[in-house]
């Protein structure tokens, strides 16, 4: 039985049937969520609550808490800090103090009301506040999707000094702005227009135990085996928290794509690694082309047969690329990558 999509799929003859279904889904999702989070603790990943600025962040932590080198990991939509579960142990082994916060409105992090609270400047302030709260002397920013939007802008504005920048499946903002002038990318990004509607997106995402949240991962994935029920339930469970979906969608409602990426940008001097799953249905890989015009020192690695959820779907390849780049070694290429091949040995 697929979690969150069992006998509750149909209509309800009586209101009591709805109550029984909702209770059954709650029990099922909580059990699977607990299973996934237990796996994290087995890998030395703990949950802490960190006060930073005016926010209280739920943060997954790994590595030496006294390390002066911070790896700050920023997730995207509709994700959770859990999306970095494969990269956190690697970064900890390389000597980093690793923080993966649930960002504003996600998980059990503070959830301000009103879409204005989710404007890019407020989100960037959160990143700066986390860096300041860490007290780290060296910061490497690692980001995916919406986290990548923040990471690029944080680096380009030089809000805080960065030692290195890693961005996965999110192009340089100038390349994104250029692509949005083309019909093909506007078509891929039309979901962002739908998200502007009041209440309807929340209603759809909440139905059937947040089934559509799970499908956002499994439905886009090339290798669906990377998204078993216990993984999807982490994302579904957080989406069902009171007010969570509205907060998550407010990232889009407060930041229209047409203006978010139009800010003039200097050439970036921070050493940058880009990793890109080529089978991204939301973002065309052509947006990676020409990045070296805007970033002085950039390394790009494409992974064929991998979706938008690159760090979760191809963690062995992503980790090998990430480790080599951080250590200054030759960065491997996976031009003929086959899903699951590296995990099989």
Q: SSE layout and pairings?
A:
Elements: H1 15-42, E1 46-52, E2 55-62, E3 69-74, H2 87-93, E4 97-101, H3 120-134, E5 138-144, H4 146-156, E6 164-168, H5 173-179, H6 183-188, H7 191-194, H8 200-218, H9 229-239, H10 244-253, H11 257-260, E7 272-277, E8 298-303, H12 310-313, H13 315-326
Parallel strand pairs: 3-4, 3-5, 5-6, 6-7, 7-8
Antiparallel strand pairs: 1-2, 2-4
Structure description:
This protein has 345 residues and is of the alpha/beta class. Helices cover 40% and strands 14% of the residues. It contains 13 helices and eight strands. Helix 1 crosses helix 9, helix 3 crosses helix 4 and helix 8 runs antiparallel to helix 9. The relative contact order is 0.14. The N terminus is likely disordered.
Q: Please count the beta strands (DSSP E, at least 2 residues each).
A: 8
Oligomer: single chain
Main sheet summary? 8 strands, mixed
Low-confidence stretches: 1-25
Brief characterization of the structure:
The chain is 40% helix and 14% strand.
Tags for this entry?
345 residues; Rossmann fold; globular; alpha/beta
């Amino acid at each position: 039985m697929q979690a969150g999509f069992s006998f509750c799929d149909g209509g309800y003859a009586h209101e009591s049937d709805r109550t029984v279904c909702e209770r059954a889904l709650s029990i099922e999702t909580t059990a699977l969520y607990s299973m996934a989070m237990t796996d994290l603790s087995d890998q030395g990943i703990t949950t802490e609550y960190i006060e930073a600025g005016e926010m209280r962040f739920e943060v997954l932590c790994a590595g030496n808490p006294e390390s002066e080198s911070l790896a700050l990991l920023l997730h995207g939509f509709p994700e959770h800090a859990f999306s970095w579960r494969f990269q956190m142990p690697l970064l900890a082994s390389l000597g980093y103090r690793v923080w993966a916060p649930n960002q504003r409105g996600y998980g059990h992090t503070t959830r301000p009301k009103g879409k204005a609270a989710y404007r890019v400047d407020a989100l960037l302030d959160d990143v700066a506040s986390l860096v300041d709260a860490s007290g780290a002397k060296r910061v490497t920013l690692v980001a995916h999707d919406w986290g990548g939007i923040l990471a690029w802008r944080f680096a380009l504005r030089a809000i805080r000094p960065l030692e290195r920048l890693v961005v996965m499946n999110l192009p340089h903002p100038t390349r994104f702005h250029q692509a949005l002038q083309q019909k093909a990318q506007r078509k891929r990004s039309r979901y962002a227009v739908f998200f502007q509607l009041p209440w309807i997106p929340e209603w759809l995402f909440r139905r059937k135990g947040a089934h559509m949240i799970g499908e956002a991962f499994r439905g886009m994935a090339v290798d669906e085996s990377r998204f078993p029920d216990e993984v999807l339930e982490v994302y579904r469970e957080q989406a069902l928290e009171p007010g969570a979906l509205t907060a998550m969608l407010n990232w889009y409602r407060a930041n229209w794509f047409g203006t978010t990426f139009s800010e003039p940008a200097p050439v970036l001097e921070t050493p940058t690694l880009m990793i890109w799953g080529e089978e991204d249905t939301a973002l065309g890989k052509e947006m990676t082309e020409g990045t070296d015009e805007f970033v002085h020192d950039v390394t790009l690695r494409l992974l064929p047969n991998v979706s938008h959820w690159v760090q979760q779907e191809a963690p062995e390849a992503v980790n090998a690329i990430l480790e080599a780049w951080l250590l200054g070694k030759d960065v491997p290429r996976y031009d003929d990558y086959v899903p699951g091949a590296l995990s099989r040995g």
